[in-house]
Amino acid sequence: MDSIDFRFRLDWPGFSLDVDLALPGRGVSGLFGHSGSGKTTLLRCIAGLERAAHGYLSVKGDVWQDDGHWRPVHRRPIGYVFQEASLFPHLDVIGNLRFGMKRVKTLSAGKAALETHLERAIELLGIEHLLKRKPGHLSGGERQRVGIARALALDPQLLLMDEPLAALDLKRKLEILPYLERLHDELAVPILYVSHAPDEVARLADHLVLLENGRVVASGPLTETLARADLPAAFADDAGVVIETVLAAHEEDGLSRLEFPGGQMYVGRRADPLGRRLRCRIHASDVSLTLNLPPDSSILNRLPVTVSDIVESDRLGHVIVRLEISGGGGALLARITERSRRLLDIKPGRQVWAQIKAVAVLA
Amino acid sequence: MFLNEEDLQAIWLTIKLASVVTVILFLIGTPIAWWLSRTRSRLKGAIGAVVALPLVLPPSVLGFYMLVAMGPNGPVGQLTQALGIGLLPFTFWGLVVASVIYSLPFMVQPVQNAFEAVGERPLEVAATLRASPLDAFFNVALPLALPGFITAGVLTFAHTVGEFGVVLMIGGNLPGATRMVSVQIYDHVEAMEYANAHNLAGVMLVFSFLVLLALYAWRPDAKRD
Asked: Which residues have C-beta within 8 Å of that of residue A147, sequence separation ≥ 6?
């Protein structure tokens, strides 16, 4: 009963949506797909902004849509963050933040709790100094932070975010991402996060749903789904895995050591405190394979792995190899040429060394 | 005093007519404009065309049809008689009805444009913030469309003040009941009272200019934010 279950069928000219999913009732679920894949439409169906003729939706046991049953948008306990912040221009920031709160039907004790929520949302998004301003006098990043706070202030049971960073430039994105991470770390509310940016999803999501042409191609825990050898076509050049690590040591020569079950990796010196959990992303194109550990390689990060799967790549002459890290540390993907595969005789069950050229720390 | 008693009476009557018509049109025009701005109905084109008809038709044509409809044998006339109101032509309220129809596009079109400019998004946002459709209409759509309403109100008022053909057809020329400024000026000219005509026409000219000045001076301000 702790999950978000839904089934939607929608037929529009030139587009159809047909999904049937159960998502975890906690953490961040990333809905990933290219434009036109139906991810925003799916989110709108869940919010009730689109009405699928055939649909079922229950959130933690509470049925919001079923045959003959439809709860209108304004009665759903959601928070929705639009791609453009869509603040009301005729209200100042605090007026925007209070717009929804004033309308939540609750007892006075509930109102007091909402006040606490508002204060917390304002603090979480760092917008105390903006409260009296009109939206026209905010930067794009500030506006989006207010938009997120406005949704959070309602204490929603489900937070829906439709590409909240897509309309922002890189600088603004980097400004907001830490706030989104705080949401993820500090709030209990489940979040559905729509994005077409693999890095955003890899950084924020715990669960990943892959959509293509209105159909679900894959759905599962983020690390497992990203490590599936049969899916990289969907990510194209961004194919790669995510590994959860812990910052274990700062070394004298400007490197930091990250540990994870089954191994360790070195990255450039981190400013974070020891013991901090860090999510790392390793692109398939940054992983090469050798049969024996070369004694004179410049590459520091090398892991003993076992080949478990080989799938044709979407790129001509290349294959994607899935590698199990010994010790239950998860999996890696490597994109190598078909010729290398043949020359090295890479096949399932074979023990090889993975050389990792680059590790991106996602925080 | 450069305006005589009858002139003042005509001015007062004109302001009263224009005010009543503007208020009534806010009430009637807003739902029509809202419907036109949101509907995907095939009737949208037809209704839009009917609303815009007074822009194209000569006022005398419009006035003629309304006179016939409100007359003792017309459908509206029969209805008003059955309701015990009597006949509308050549009464103040007959003029109100006629002016409402005549000025309808001046209310509906700016308001419709304003609603269309507001778009769907703010209403969706309002819905996700727990606002019912009615709540969203009054607290989001109306405030956001306010500049359109002000334009529409001013245009409707000014257009009603300036009408002549319809007034003459429906209202006739009864002092204190249906004699508007425009007709009064016409009377002055007919009677060769050019000085009086000048005075009243001057008042109208200044009034019209001030109204438009207020409108244009205010607009850019409203667009900020």
From this structure: A81, A82, A85, A86, A87, A164
A13 touches chain B (CB under 8 A): no
Q: How many Cα atoms are found within 13 Å in the side-chain-facing hemisphere of A209?
A: 25
Classify the C-alpha dihedral B146-B152-B155-B157 as positive or negative: negative
Determine contact, residues B27/B109, Cβ cutoff 8 Å.
Answer: no
Q: Which of A2-16, A72-86, A163-177, B37-51 has the lowest mean pLDDT?
A: A163-177
Q: What is the ipTM of this complex?
A: 0.85
Q: Which of A73, A88, A136 sits opposite B128 (nearest CB)?
A: A73
The helix/strand/coil state of A147 is helix
Range of the domain at A299: 240-245+278-361
Does the distance separating the beta carbons of B143 and A90 come in below 8 Å? yes
Interface test with B, best of A12, A40, A86, A117 (most B CBs within 10 A): A86
- What CATH number is given to the structural domain containing A46? 3.40.50.300
Q: Which of A234, A257, A289 is the last residue of a domain?
A: A234
pLDDT per position as a tens digit, B33-54: 999 999 999 999 999 999 999 9
Do A230 and A302 reside in the same domain of the chain?
A: no
The confidence score (pLDDT) of residue A169 equals: 81
| Total domains in the fold of chain A | 2
Residues 130-189 of A with CB under 8 A from B: 134-137, 150-151, 154
Question: A residues 25-54 near B, CB within 8 Å?
Answer: 47-49
Contact B224 A78 (CB under 8 A): no
Among B70, B61, B74, B62, smallest CA distance to B90 is for B70
Residues of A within 8 A of B124 (CB-CB) are 49, 73, 82
Contacts (Cβ under 8 Å, ≥6 apart) of A339:
A317
Chain A CB within 8 Å of residue B225 CB: yes
